[in-house]
Structure formats: C-alpha cells, structure tokens
Amino acid sequence: xxxxxxxxxxxxxxxxxxxxxxxxxxxxxxxxxxxxxxxxxxxxxxxxxxxxxxxxxxxxxxxxxxxxxxxxxxxxxxxxxxxxxxxxxxxxxxxxxxxxxxxxxxxx
Length: 108
Description:
Elements: H1 8-19, E1 37-42, E2 47-52, H2 65-74, E3 81-86, H3 99-104
C-alpha cells in the first residue's frame, strides 16, 4: 500500500478549526481570532508545527495553553505529530486580533 498523499492546505484548515475551539481563559475569544497563532506549518508526512505567542510572558496559562494546543491538534487523525513553539517576537498586541474578536470585545 502506498502512503496516501495528503493535502497539506486542507489539513491546515482542519487544524485552524481545532484552534478555534481553544479559548484564552481571561478573554472570551478563541486563540486564533485573538491573534495568538502566528503560523501553522504542515509537511507531507503530517508533522505539524505551530508558532504561537501568549498575551504576555507572565500569562497565567503559559504552562497549560501550549500543551492544550498540542494535544488538540494531535487528536486529529490526519496529524502524525505536533509541536508548539512559543515566541514573543513580535510581542502580541491588540492589533493582532481579528475584526471579529475586536467586535466581540466591544472594541469596534
């Protein structure tokens, strides 16, 4: 049996849907709309790397949020492995939030 060729863009979209189910506990907006996800990399062998940030280095969920992201992404059948990398470069600002998130928080 030959290994199935996967559509990395399609898998990326599924990953984004999963990310939209994870919420920052302090802000009632998902981490994707909040702008905490900087990049999602998917390769042909279904390894996923997520580059994300937190609202601040002292964020109370700094220990648990990346683990939750990794576990939820790994729960997708099409994902072989997932790694979450945290960066503070560039630092998160409210400008990274989607219009939807700003509307939700009454900022528009």
